[in-house]
Amino acid sequence: MSINSYRDLKVWQFSMDLVEQIYCITENFPKHEVYQLSSQMQRAAVSIPSNIAEGHARESTKEFVRYLSITLGSLAELETQVMLAQRRAYIDKEKLIFTLSQTDEIGRMLRGLQKSLKTKLGTRY
Q: Any coiled-coil ranges, and where (predicted)?
């Protein structure tokens, strides 16, 4: 299967699923968190598939690799926020484990894609 669009990338598709998961989780946060942790988690989650899409659209492999690096940063930010939400008892341990398993899988996919693109560029990493 050829990749004609960022929408063809499994990592983008899985990231979109993660965004939906985060929106579902944050719906139940306390009202005082609407403009705080809830909003930060939603923005971090949305930035993951958004950066994959933007990087792919740049039509430069070097730029795409750079955007994947930014995406990994957003993923780490979201993981931290999810763990904080669990510490604050906004989400239960089960949701934490499920969400972190999603972020782990997306992280592996992003690093694999990065490695493949860097090989294509012939760069050391």
A: none
CA distance 77 to 6: 22
pLDDT (tens digit per residue) in 26-45: 999 999 998 899 999 999 99
Q: Taking the domain 6-121, which CATH number applies?
A: 1.20.1440.60
DSSP E strands, the chain: none
DSSP class of residue 6 equals: G
pLDDT at 2: 62
Domain extents in the chain:
6-121
CA distance 97 to 104: 10
Each residue's pLDDT tens digit, 47-74: 999 999 999 999 799 999 999 999 999 9
Residue among 15, 36, 46, 14 at smallest CA distance from 90: 36
> Residue with structure tokens 């929106």?
23
- The answer to whether 96 and 1 are in contact (CB under 8 A) is no
> Token pair of 125, please?
């990493």
